[in-house]
């Protein structure tokens, strides 16, 4: 099920990401950088633990987790979710990541469509879509 996401993905399109970053409280300087970088997204699985790495010239992050088990996360923009505040589930063929911090929340849904990895980022009524293509 999760194996279909395994691989290295390169971002090819980002829509409404500045509005999304603003909605989750990212400052202007970080938003400017976030709008121009095209990160790689690397998914791997080992012994039931999923690793999701985001690599760019600006910053690289990695989270390791088991499905449906809550964990603490430090995001690329330095938000920290406390233990029990980030959870990733596999729902209807999608990896659904829910983050909660400082009374706020966001959901990132990752789905495969036509061979592309589509990440839909939602915060309140703000939605951003980031499209990744598999690297050879």
From TrEMBL:
<dbReference type="InterPro" id="IPR031259">
    <property type="entry name" value="ILBP"/>
</dbReference>
<comment type="similarity">
    <text>Belongs to the calycin superfamily. Fatty-acid binding protein (FABP) family.</text>
</comment>
<comment type="function">
    <text>Cytosolic CRABPs may regulate the access of retinoic acid to the nuclear retinoic acid receptors.</text>
</comment>
<dbReference type="InterPro" id="IPR000463">
    <property type="entry name" value="Fatty_acid-bd"/>
</dbReference>
<feature type="domain" description="Cytosolic fatty-acid binding proteins">
    <location>
        <begin position="7"/>
        <end position="24"/>
    </location>
</feature>
<dbReference type="GO" id="GO:0019841">
    <property type="term" value="F:retinol binding"/>
</dbReference>
<dbReference type="InterPro" id="IPR012674">
    <property type="entry name" value="Calycin"/>
</dbReference>
<keyword id="KW-0683">Retinol-binding</keyword>
<dbReference type="Pfam" id="PF00061">
    <property type="entry name" value="Lipocalin"/>
</dbReference>
<keyword id="KW-0813">Transport</keyword>
<protein>
    <recommendedName>
        <fullName>Cellular retinoic acid-binding protein 1</fullName>
    </recommendedName>
</protein>
<dbReference type="GO" id="GO:0016918">
    <property type="term" value="F:retinal binding"/>
</dbReference>
<dbReference type="InterPro" id="IPR000566">
    <property type="entry name" value="Lipocln_cytosolic_FA-bd_dom"/>
</dbReference>
<keyword id="KW-0845">Vitamin A</keyword>
């Amino acid at each position: 099920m999760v194996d279909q996401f395994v691989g290295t993905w390169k971002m090819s399109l980002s829509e409404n990401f500045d509005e999304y970053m603003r909605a989750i409280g990212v400052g202007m300087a970080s938003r400017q950088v976030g709008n121009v970088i095209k990160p790689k997204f690397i998914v791997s699985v080992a012994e039931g633990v999923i690793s999701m790495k985001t690599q760019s010239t600006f910053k690289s992050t990695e989270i390791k987790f088991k499905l449906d088990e809550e964990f603490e996360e430090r995001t690329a923009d330095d938000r920290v979710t406390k233990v029990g505040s980030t959870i990733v589930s596999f729902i209807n063929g999608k990896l659904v990541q829910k983050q909660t911090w400082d009374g706020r929340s966001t959901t990132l849904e990752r789905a495969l469509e036509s061979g592309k990895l589509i990440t839909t980022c939602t915060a309140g009524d703000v939605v951003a879509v980031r499209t990744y293509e598999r690297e050879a």
